[in-house]
Amino acid sequence: MAERETASSVPPKCGPYISSVTSRSMNLVIRGVVLFLIGVFLALVLNLLQIQRNVTLFPPDVIASIFSSAWWVPPCCGTASAVIGLLYPCIDRHLGEPHKFKREWSSVMRCVAVFVGINHASAKVDFDNNIQLSLTLAALSIGLWWTFDRSRSGFGLGVGIAFLATVVTQLLVYNGVYQYTSPDFLYVRSWLPCIFFAGGITMGNIGRQLAMERLSLEVCIRGSLFLMGRGG
């Protein structure tokens, strides 16, 4: 009797479909693809704003899309978005500090809207000089982090992403891939790190939310299987 009760309390093995959905590798692929597509879409929209205001200039022979953007920009931004979105929850787990501040999709959508607004301001708002614009965007970017993140790991990753992306952009402009009008920070605009920082925070929030959705799905599935096993 004791052995029979013990056997009935153990949930049955997951079927092949359930196993594929809940497996970590499949989940990483799904989240990576979603983050990549989001990054591609944001790159097309935001780069269009920059080009319309002549903030960035691409050579005519590399313009090859309906959004007037160089063909390689969306894939690069999509890949970077996938890496950033997967890195944030991974760092949270490594540090043992799960991020729970404003973890709902409505907050994530507001974060995306604020990020688009910051990028829009960099292209549309006219300031007397670039220093005023840079300070304003820096304050807005830090405000975005404080409003939607507030984690030390998020701030540190955002600063690291901003530094690395700025260095890569400097190298691209130096090699003539494209250029910025009126550069005031070596070959780029001084406010560019602020945009990269805000973008890192935004994609990190999306990645964290997608990771939480996976955990919720897995808990529900395993709980349902356990109850089915008990009921059987």
UniProtKB/TrEMBL annotation:
Compartments, as annotated in UniProt: Endoplasmic reticulum membrane
Species for this entry: Vombatus ursinus
GO cellular component terms, A-Z: SREBP-SCAP-Insig complex
Keywords tagged on the record: Cholesterol metabolism, Endoplasmic reticulum, Lipid metabolism, Lipid-binding, Membrane, Steroid metabolism, Sterol metabolism, Transmembrane, Transmembrane helix
Official protein name in the record: Insulin-induced gene protein
Record family assignment: Belongs to the INSIG family.
Classification via Pfam families: INSIG
Molecular function GO labels: lipid binding
GO BP terms in the entry: cellular response to insulin stimulus; cholesterol biosynthetic process; SREBP signaling pathway; SREBP-SCAP complex retention in endoplasmic reticulum
Taxonomic lineage of the native organism: Eukaryota, Metazoa, Chordata, Craniata, Vertebrata
